Each structure stands twice: as structure tokens, then as C-alpha cells.
Amino acid sequence: MKPFKGQFTQQEPIPKAAIDMAVNVLNSGRLHRYNTLANEISLTSELEVAYAHFQGARYCLACSSGGYAMSLAMRAAGIKPGDHVLTNGFTLAPVPGAIAAVHAKAILVEVTDGLTIDLDDLQEKAKQGARALLLSNMRGHLSDMTEITRICEEHDLILIEDCAHTMGAEWIGKKSGNFGLAGCFSTQTYKHMNSGEGGLLTSDDPEFMAKAILLSGSYMLFDRHAAAPDIEYFNEVKLEAPNMSGRMDNLRAAILLPQLEELYKNIIRWNNRYERIAQHLEQSSIVKYSSRPDQEFYVGSSIQFNIPTFSRENVLNFLKQTAGLGVELKWFGDDNPVGFTSKYSSWQYLEPQSLPKTDEILSTLFDMRIPLSFSIEDCEHIAQIITHCAQSIVMENA
Ligand SMILES: *Cc1c(COP(=O)(O)O)cnc(C)c1O
Predict the structure, then answer these.
(1) How far is the CA of 164 from the centre of ligand 1 (A)?
(2) Is residue 94 in contact with ligand 1, taking CB distance under 6 Å?
(3) What CATH number is attached to the domain comprising 312?
(4) Exposure check for the chain: N or C terminus, fewer CB within 10 A?
(5) How many CA atoms lie within 13 A of 248 on its CB side?
(6) Is residue 4 part of a domain?
(7) pLDDT tens across 123-141, in order?
(8) Does 89 share its domain with 218?
(9) β-strands 59-63, 199-203: how paired?
């Protein structure tokens, strides 16, 4: 088998239009979002208007990161220290981190083999009096959002969606992020738009958004926000909301605005790559790839599969063989956190919790990023390496 030579962490270059816009901002010297000329709308505000439009939400706030957007959303929603916040047992570290940032208590919920939150466990744990559900659409997998909104209504849960991996995704034609009080997005390098760091918060609720804008550090310049509620909503709370600086700047907004125009085109490019790998994995009798629900329009920026028959030793061997052929897979079943990959048991600031079903799924779950810098042929090659290595380990076992 010929090794694969591509780099799994190599993103595409920033588009020329974005570089030009960024250079203009640098030349102007006006990088701060409130450093505007008379009647000038800052690029950060332009981005908020454009993203609200893309998302189909009334309001949008650009901020410093996706993790900041989540903790800001919880603060603006009135989550208090000690409140219980439900979230997925399988997610990335910024999610429990955002709950810790507001001194709330994270209650972890089991996940299904489709990698979405387990609705039965959610229902059970919701009964015990949580205030909110911070739903993580981890690795782009959308839950049955009709059921999620029903459960949230039944148990009076505030729904905040972590859409770091579902920017552009939809459930039955409705955009991920539009199902509850707020949607939280990340524009960090490894997400669907790349400004290095950055976050976007969307909502239709004027009181919530006025608070979020004030909390994000708007001083008394909130009237310069162009995707914001009416001034009256700010006047009610402007002296109560502390300034917790986490603004976006015009340089990042300049880098993002032209990328937003390319997002739909890039989603198609991601999905073409994803589908090529998925088609190949589906044919394997060893690899278990779960096909996606019909209600979901996903963005295939990463792919996951299980090899349920593998022992821990097989898993380690498989990771070694695939890595030897240049294919970088992540394994979330490891007891020790590595890089971006960590399991709930390593978030030791949480109260210890046990999720046997999630443990079982993660023990043989593999995860792979699909950068757009890979061609369709690259994806075919990678898929062949995966099934080849899986096959060879099964043969060694026999
Ligand atoms: C990246 C990520 C975030 C947060 O994004 P940052 O911008 O890095 O803070 C939140 N949730 C998930 C699942 C992520 O992968």
C-alpha cells in the first residue's frame, strides 16, 4: 500500500479577497470594532449582519471564540453558579469549560452510536432539575431536533446549541443553531471558516442579545451594532451587565466576510470528499460506518467510524499502522488526553460521572478530519488505507 503524503492539519490558504480586505483594515489602522468614522459601519458589524442573514436569525454578535460565545450565552441566559447544565458526554473540552466558566455544574449525558445525545438519558437527567441544555452537535452530528425541542419544553430547559461543527448544517430544512435560545459558532482555524480565533453568537431574542452584547464588552457603544435589537432593550440593562471583554476585531471580520460568501460552495466540496470516504467504508464488513439520517443536511468536515470487534490492543495497532501509512486518526477512547482529543473522565474539575454506554462507543471510535486541501483522489486513497489496515488486523487476529 502506497503511503499518503498529505497533511491533516493543513487548511487552504485564506482567499485573496479576504487578504485584500485585511490589508485595507491594516492600512486604515482602525482595527477596533468601535474605531469608526462618522456614519461608518465597522467590518465587524458588517460580518454580524451578513452572518445573521446567512443563519436566518434576527441578531448576531461576533466575539473572540466559540468557547467564549457559549459561556457568554449562558451568562446572558441567566445561568447562575451552581445551576445544572446538561451536555453531551462526548464533546470537546471547550464545552465543559464554558460551563465551568459560569460556575455551573455540568451534567454529562450519554451519547448514541450515531454520536448524538442519548434522548432517554437526557429525559431521565432532565427530570432532576437542570436549567439548561448546552447541546453539542459534536463532529457535525445533529440530534433529532424535533425531540430535543420537545424535551426542552417539557422540562423547561433553556436550549443553547454548540454549532462549532454544524455551521451551515440543517435539520429538516432548519439551520442548526436556530432551535433554541441561541446558536454558538466558532471561526477557529479548524472549523468551517478560518480567522485563527473567533466566535459568532446568534439569537432571535432581543433581551438576551442586548445582554450578550453588553457583557461582551460594548462599553456604551452598543448603538454601533448593526445586527442588534432596538436601543430600548439596552437601556433597561446597561448598568447591570458587567463588561467581560471578548470582542471580535475588524481584522478578523475582514478575513471572514469573503469566506462567508464561499461557505455554501465549500460545504459541497466537503461533502463530496466525505461521501467518497463514506462510500468506501460502507462496503467494508469490518468497519462500521453509520449512515446519516435523511432529515440531516450535514457538513462533512470530518468523518467517524467504529470497528466494534477491536480489542484495545487492536485499536493501538490499527492507529500505528494507519499512521505509518500517513493517515492521522484520532481515538477518543484513550485514558490520556492527546492534543485536541480528550475524554470526559479527564475533565477532573467536574464531579466524577459514569457513562458506560459512551465508554463502550468511544472505545472503538475513530475520528478523522477532512481538510479541503485534500483532493477527492486523496480521499479515495485514505479510505483504502483505512480498510486495508482494518483488514490486516482482522487477519492477524484470525
Ligand atoms: C472548537 C470547538 C468549540 C469552541 O471553539 P473555540 O473557538 O476553539 O473556542 C466548541 N465546541 C466544539 C465541539 C468544538 O470543536
Answers:
(1) 5
(2) yes
(3) 3.90.1150.10
(4) C
(5) 35
(6) no
(7) 999 999 999 999 999 999 9
(8) yes
(9) antiparallel
